[in-house]
Amino acid sequence: MGSYLASWIINGQPPFEMTECDPLRFGSWTTNDYVLAKARESYGMNNAVTYPHEERFAGRPTSRVSGAHEVLESEGACMQIHSGWEQPAWFTSPGQQPQYCPSFQRTNWHEAVEKEVDLVMTSAGIIDLTPFAKIIVQGRQAAAFMDYMTANSVPPLGRTVITHILSPTGHVYAELTVTRTHEDTFLVITGSGVELHDLRWLQDYARRGNWNVSFANITEDMGCLSVAGPKSKDILSTLSPVFNGKFPFFSCKEVLETSELWR
C-alpha cells in the first residue's frame, strides 16, 4: 500500500485502480454522526456472515436523497446506499414487507427485480438516476479545455457525446457523458462513485494550465429521471410537444414546462 501511495503522490496517479482507497469517495454526507454509527456497526459485525449485495443500515438514511425519494418510498421502494445516496434497489409487491432479507441463494427481491426488468424491456419504466454526478464546465476557454482533456471530439451545441479522460500514461482515467448546452457551457455527467475523483482531475489540470474555465458541482441541485422502454416516447409525448418532433439520439433540448426547466 505504501508503494502504491508513493507512486500516486510522485506520478499524480496510482499504478492501479485505487478508487476504493481514495478519500474523495466520501463527501459532506459523511457527518460525524454517520462515521460514529458506522464505526460501531463495523466493529459489532466484525465476525458476522457477509452476504452478496449486503446492505448495512447504521447511519441511514443519509442526507443524500433525491426529490423523488418520498414518492419512491410510498411506492414500496427498498433503499440501498450508493456513494451516500439513498437509491431504490427494488420495489415490493402489494402486501409484501419492504425489508432486506439477504441470502446465498435467491433473495426476497429476486422476483421483484425480474418483474421490473420485464416491465422496462416490454413497456416502460421511470428510473431515478439523480445520483449520477453532474458538473458544469463553463468559461471563455471551456470548449478548448474539454477538447484538450477528453479523447472524443467536443460536441456541437445541443448534442451529447460519450468520451474519456486519458492519463499521461495512456490509461483511461474516467468515462464522461458531455453535453454542450451553450457555446461556452458543458454539462458533464460521470458516475456517482467518482464524483469528486473526476472533478479533482479536471480542476487540477485547469489550474496547471491556467485555463479560463470554472466548475460547478450541481449533483445535488439537479434531479435526473430516465424514462426507458419501447413505450417511453409515447409517454413523454403526452408531457411536451417537443417529444413529438425530431429528437435524435444523443441530442439535448431545454424544455420549460409548468415553470420547471427540463433538459
From TrEMBL:
Residues 11-63 form the FAD dependent oxidoreductase central domain. One of its GO terms (cellular component) is mitochondrion. Pfam families: FAO_M, GCV_T. Residues 69-255 form the GCVT N-terminal domain. PANTHER family: AMINOMETHYLTRANSFERASE (PTHR43757), AMINOMETHYLTRANSFERASE, MITOCHONDRIAL (PTHR43757:SF2). This is FAD dependent oxidoreductase domain-containing protein. It comes from Cherax quadricarinatus. The lineage of its organism: Eukaryota, Metazoa, Ecdysozoa, Arthropoda, Crustacea.
